Amino acid sequence: MNILGFPRIGEKRELKKALESFWAKKSSEEELLVVAKKMRTLHWEYQKNLLFVTVNDFSLYDNMLDLSYMLGAIPQRFQNLKGLDLYFAMARGNGESVACEMTKWFNTNYHFVVPELSKDLHYKVNAEKIIQEYNEAKALGYIPKISLIGLFTYFELAKIHDNSSKEEAFSQLKKAYLELVKSLTTLDEEIIIEFHEPIFVKGQNPLFSEIKDVYDTIVDFGIKAIVSTYFEASNEATKILVGTKIDGLGLDFIYGENNLTSLKLIADAGKKLYAGVIDGRNIWVANLDSKLQLLDRISIIVPKDLIHISTSCSLLHVPFSKDSEVKMDSEILSWLSFAREKITELELLESLFRNGITESNRKAYEQNQAVNATRKSSNKIHDVKVQHRVSNLKINVRSDTFKERIKIQREKLAYPNLATTTIGSFPQTPELRILRQKYKKGEINTNEYESGIKDYIKECIAFQEQIGLDVLVHGEPERNDMVEYFGEQMKGFVFSQNGWVQSYGSRCVKPPIIYGDTSRPSPMTVRWSSFAQSLSKKIVKGMLTGPVTILNWSFVRDDLPRHEVCKQLALCIADEISDLQDAGIRIIQVDEAAFKEGYPLRQENIKEYENWALECFKISSSVAKSSTQIHTHMCYSEFNDIIKTIEAMDADVISIETARSGNELLKIFKQVGYSNEVGPGVYDIHSPRIPSVDEIYKQIKLLLEVLPQEQLWINPDCGLKTRKWEEVKPSLKNMIEAVKKVRAEIDK
Ligand code: GLN
Ligand code: ZN
After folding, report:
1. Please, what is the angle between helix 526-534 and helix 446-467, to 10°?
2. Contact 242, 268 (CB under 8 A)
3. Where does Zn(2+) 1 bind (predicted)?
4. Is residue 612 included in any domain, yes or no?
5. DSSP code, position 475
6. Is the pLDDT of residue 25 over 80?
């Protein structure tokens, strides 16, 4: 039995607290390290019945960053720093130098620190972190397995920051990486390393020609190597890996069913198989009967004694344990399995797989069957009305073409060219957070809460009118989070109290859990939007989160295909759009911030995702009348691969992130002849800096080189909730000034 890693943020987010206190200089480095060591000790204790305990899965910030640090891949601007100062400066920046970039780890919500490669890196390896953790585990009497990000994955996720060729950069890095691995051989007689190579699931890559050499070299150092891939199947790499000297392969059979086609190769090569059959990314109790069937299928081909039952990936992506969920409906809670419970499942599955049903496992096995049976038939999950609606869905396109709609909208909504707006949220002030918390805890009553929210909305509207924005928003003060806010008001969702999952560094998210058929019993946003609209003659945009984003940022039930769950969500949002327009809201924005995140890792699966994700967006938006303008917003800037899908979404207006990429990205919109309206963000909201009128003016002029003024909207990059009013006010004023200047020139 094996896991690929354990959550490191801690049962009660101890690491978060220790880190934040250290960063705030309220505690010392020693104190931080004591907490970290205590956590590792505890986490290994839970793993004591496994084949080994995993070391180096722990991190004070991120494993990719750990590896950069251990390789000495330190960008020039941090050269004068050392130790934790250096480590955290790379992660978070310091007064002088900006942090390294962060981006999402494959298709998860975990962010890693992107390595910066260049010729002037002076690689200097230092395995101290691994050595220390290894010795700690050893001293406690465990057999340690080192978890290490593989060379290929590290390299492909890195960015080359100078004109080095890929080959040069790779060969330099390879030298350092091998040196690091070699330096570990002195630790023990036999060193076991599990190399994480999820990049292999993306399929053929020119660097595959290096796989054999790299892993044979590593084994020749005297290391017992396991190479693990996850999140999809990795058959191309498996073909090569079976021909190397490695000891075993780890494959994901949950998200990479196609790995089953590689079993014969593995058996023929006599390699060990770490079979990822317990879902490392989702939170449902395993159905042990179906797991046993899967293992039977595998063991027809691979001899039983070469199979080690594993999680599909690191447990980093699920919460710590269900122990502290005291408020959740007990039936629903019985269907869940977090990291600690998953280890127990591994143990039970192992015993059933090796010994069949015995005196000692019978009770737990029967309990597992019972839980799965109740989950299947529970009336909490099944809502016939919802199922009926989904199966009777009619075609979902808006009644008019964009050309026809935009004519009606332009007439009715009468906004100018280069219309100005924002993405929805205004600053979430400490007062606002306190107000919501007090209401949640029952410390203030509904009246007090609502009048607080209304005051905020009034201020937002007054400010927007005063500076002269064309299309206003209510500011989203009632929302803690753009998914949670909707999930809390829909049936079929449940929220944990302590189900935290690390997002980056000390930041955690608590994803909503979709356990059953979803529906929307009553309007979710209408009262706030209507209130805001009642305050102004100008148009106030309604604000919704789209179905695909709600899906991609939740733990989703596994007893229904994702596209079916998404269709149900799409109907909830459609209902909300319908109510908003009936209430007189004329523009409605459906945010799809996480649309792109859901893209499958393998090319051949992309079409299918695009088809249903697109369909779901359209199920929601097609209830809009021709005169109701539908906006959507996406917070990223790379559209090249998905522009056709964006076009097919057929939103009347899309706002996107561009401020950091100039008008480069817009060119793709022009190239494909995109004809709907576009709002490319004209300034970056991710920084506290206030953009000058001139700067925004220039940015608008650049945009106008690519698209005509009739097609353009002017707005910031993203929502303003993370900013302060002192930043937002002057920034938006400058944006308006810049637009005025451009309009004046055009009118001349
Ligand atoms: N309407 C949301 C906001 O302004 C959009 C957030 C997002 O795209 N992440 O906050
Ligand atoms: Zn955004």
Report:
1. 50
2. yes
3. 633, 635, 657, 718
4. yes
5. B
6. yes
- DSSP category for residue 22: H
- For residue 145, which of 153, 156, 133, 154 has the smallest C-alpha distance? 133
- 377 C-alpha to center of ligand 1: Å? 37
Q: Is the pLDDT of residue 659 over 80?
A: no
**Which of the ligands is closest to the CA of residue 718?**
2
Among left, alpha and beta (phi > 0; psi -120 to 50; other), residue 276 is: beta
Burial of 270 (0-12, 13-18, 19+ CB in 10 A): exposed
Q: Domain limits at 523?
A: 396-747
Q: What is the per-residue pLDDT across 308-367, written as a single tens digit (0 to 9) for each?
A: 999 999 999 999 999 989 999 999 999 999 999 999 999 999 999 999 999 999 999 999
Pocket test for ligand 1, best of 718, 721, 732 (most atoms within 8 A of CB): 718
Q: Is the pLDDT of residue 638 over 90?
A: no
Check: CB of residue 44 under 8 Å from CB of residue 142: yes
The pLDDT value given to residue 560: 96
Q: Please work out whether the CB of residue 718 comes within 6 Å of at least one atom of ligand 1.
A: yes
Tell whether ligand 1 has an atom less than 6 A from the beta carbon of residue 596. no
pLDDT at position 688 is: 85
Reply yes or no on whether the pLDDT at 463 is more than 70. Answer: yes
Centroid of ligand 2 to alpha carbon of 592 (angstroms): 8
Fill in the amino acid letter for 518.
T
* Residue in the structure block whose two tokens are 């990049």: 199
Overall domain count for the chain: 1
Question: pTM surpassing 0.90?
Answer: yes
3-class secondary-structure state, position 543: strand
Q: What is the pLDDT of residue 263?
A: 98
Map tokens 């190597």 to a residue: 225
| Single-letter code of the amino acid located at 342 | K
Answer yes or no: is 181 within a domain.
Answer: no
Q: How far apart are CA 1 and CA 228, in angstroms?
A: 14
Is the model's pLDDT at 662 over the cut of 80?
Answer: no
pLDDT at 241: 98
Ligand 1 center to 719 CA (angstroms): 4
Rounded Cα distance, 679 and 422, in Å: 10
Catalytic residue among 196, 308, 382, 686: 686
Question: From the CB of 474, is ligand 1 less than 6 Å away?
Answer: no
**DSSP code string of 257-285:** GGGGGGHHHHHHHT-EEEEEEE-SS--BP
Q: From 417, 416, 525, 549, select the one nearest 473 (Cα to Cα).
A: 525
Is 686 a known active-site residue?
yes
- Ligand 1 contact via 626 beta carbon (within 6 Å): no
Residue from 109, 423, 597, 656 to probe ligand 1 pocket by mutation (most atoms less than 8 Å from CB): 423
**Residue 629 pairs with which residues in a beta bridge?**
587
Q: Name the closest ligand to CA 593.
A: 1
Pairing of strands 491-494, 513-519: antiparallel
Phi and psi dihedrals of 399, rounded to 5? -70, -35
For residue 588 and ligand 1, the question of a CB distance below 6 A is answered with no
Please write the tens of the pLDDT for every residue from 520-552: 999 999 999 999 999 999 999 999 999 999 999
Q: What is the C-alpha R_g of the chain? A: 27
- Quick one: average pLDDT of 709-719? 96
Q: Above 90 in pLDDT, residue 98?
A: no
Rounded CA-CA distance 714/417 in Å is: 9
* CATH code for the domain of 630: 3.20.20.210
- Is 603 a domain residue? yes
Cα-to-centroid distance, 717 and ligand 2 (Å): 7
Cβ of 549 below 6 Å from ligand 1: no
Residue 510 has pLDDT above 80, yes or no: yes
Average pLDDT over residues 141-161: 97
Which residue positions form the known binding site for Zn(2+)?
Answer: 633, 635, 657, 718
- SS3 at position 723: coil
